[in-house]
User: What shape does this take?
Amino acid sequence: MTEDSFGPVSLVTYNRMPLYLKALYSMREKGEKFVSSVALAEVVRDNPSVVKKDLSYAIRGVGKPKVGYEVGALIEDIEEFLGYNNTKEAILVGVGRLGQALMGYEGFSKYGLNIVAGFDVDDNIIGKKINGKEILPTGKIASVIDKLKIKVAILATSKDKAQFMADLLVKSGIRAIWNFTPAHLILSEEIAVKNEDLAASFAILSMQLKEILRKEK
Amino acid sequence: MTEDSFGPVSLVTYNRMPLYLKALYSMREKGEKFVSSVALAEVVRDNPSVVKKDLSYAIRGVGKPKVGYEVGALIEDIEEFLGYNNTKEAILVGVGRLGQALMGYEGFSKYGLNIVAGFDVDDNIIGKKINGKEILPTGKIASVIDKLKIKVAILATSKDKAQFMADLLVKSGIRAIWNFTPAHLILSEEIAVKNEDLAASFAILSMQLKEILRKEK
DNA sequence: TAGATTGTTAATCGATTAACAATC
DNA sequence: TAGATTGTTAATCGATTAACAATC
Assistant: This one.
């Protein structure tokens, strides 16, 4: 599936929401009670109008003229909007170094992602636990997905196994794949795919660096 | 720095380039010599006009009416355009599970990124090697950056050390930070920052899944 | 030649920005 | 009250899409 928006809310808005959240968390830590769209815009390096529009999709209450938005309430609303309170269970396939890092990352639970188990082909790690979650042989993928009604899978295998595993996952009932492999997956339109595209990220960072070094000269 | 484009080329174009590349690699493997904008557009799920426009920024030669673009030449041109042939040296700070995964990832060299060393505070891993690259104590960061004239750093520390380390890196001469921590870094506009924002990615995947499950019912 | 595809220009669409009345 | 900020509407900007002449 490739969509640029979900209902009235555009993808760019979804991308900005976590930025607002991060900024709001640190404001809350500092004990700040209210924030204006202007202040938030400065922190995320954007325009106040964008902030106001974005927030209007998430907030239940209203901002108060002259004072702004209540930080605590805003955090709750955005968390709700992004589904952080609605935990999605997922499995992780491919428990190499990256897979281990992802399984061990405790931050996921904060944004509504719970990895229930990892799967690998390597007998040396099958049976071990990471972050309290068991690593099982790939042969058990289908039955676990079926039993727990899992819809989300995190793919962190080697590149050459990625397509095969993705096909297996879909056949077993998975409807969303978070792809951390560099493989270009070809899947039905009915499957949600999010590629963690390090090549693209780095290309953009490189361009920015080039621009900065050019200006410095 | 926050820019939406570099010269005439927009950020969205840069984001699509690696997608084209992935598709082209697998076409080359299959022995396909030519590809049309229509075929490429299908694979990356986009519009042929977008493809033609994007490619026009990268190609040196021209596509041939009726046959399309030469796969091999196109790959070379896009790689050149994205700077894959112009290797950037980088250091990695924070060699935990994620840091180890990044240091061990051999794919980076393919897109012009060479991690020359890792840095950590943990005596248990200092002195070890990953992927042939040494892990040094953080105390040596400044001198290594200075000696090798490093401009790029990959940040993979814990969240609470991220800002401190980022400040140290910038002070030592780093001009581009690829931030894999969940921390919201506050840095001068003169520094390129690319956040690997897993929260945002997952939020988008969740939305797509929601939409798919809604349609299935 | 006829037809497919490029490269480019024009039309459309949507997102960003600016402006401003409402209001606390 | 006066002034700052919201929420929303209008204007602008840029990206996407469609159309089409050029051409192999």
Chain B is about 45% helix and 20% strand. Chain B touches chain A through 67 residues (CB under 8 Å). The mean pLDDT of chain B is 92.
